[in-house]
Amino acid sequence: xxxxxxxxxxxxxxxxxxxxxxxxxxxxxxxxxxxxxxxxxxxxxxxxxxxxxxxxxxxxxxxxxxxxxxxxxxxxxxxxxxxxxxxxxxxxxxxxxxxxxxxxxxxxxxxxxxxxxxxxxxxxxxxxxxxxxxxxxxxxxxxxx
Length: 145
What we know:
Blueprint: H1 3-22, H2 38-43, E1 44-48, E2 57-66, E3 72-80, E4 86-95, E5 101-105, E6 109-113, E7 118-124, E8 132-139
Parallel strand pairs: 1-8
Antiparallel strand pairs: 2-3, 3-7, 4-5, 4-6, 4-8
């Protein structure tokens, strides 16, 4: 027997033994780490309504806080990714525990984001019925007749 086939055989045997043993390093179920932003991630979403803003705007929910009177305060970060001014409108639709609108939504507010500018968009629900929310962003339409 030559040296090469013997080495290949020993290497294959070592790999065959190592693979089953490598996955048994932990005991018990996997427990996820506490994520301080988990409430915001599970309770809020950002929806860019206009496809014309695709690639121009970056956005994410920063924080959702329940105020003392039961209303929700939402903060979302909106970022212009382009090197030119991008006009947008933003609003928040508040939803109940089933994900249906409570009828509590803010009016569309216009913003002009400068090149590479980031801003924090904030809104409060009017009633304590809100359990989650969706921040909606669309392109600002021209007001010309």
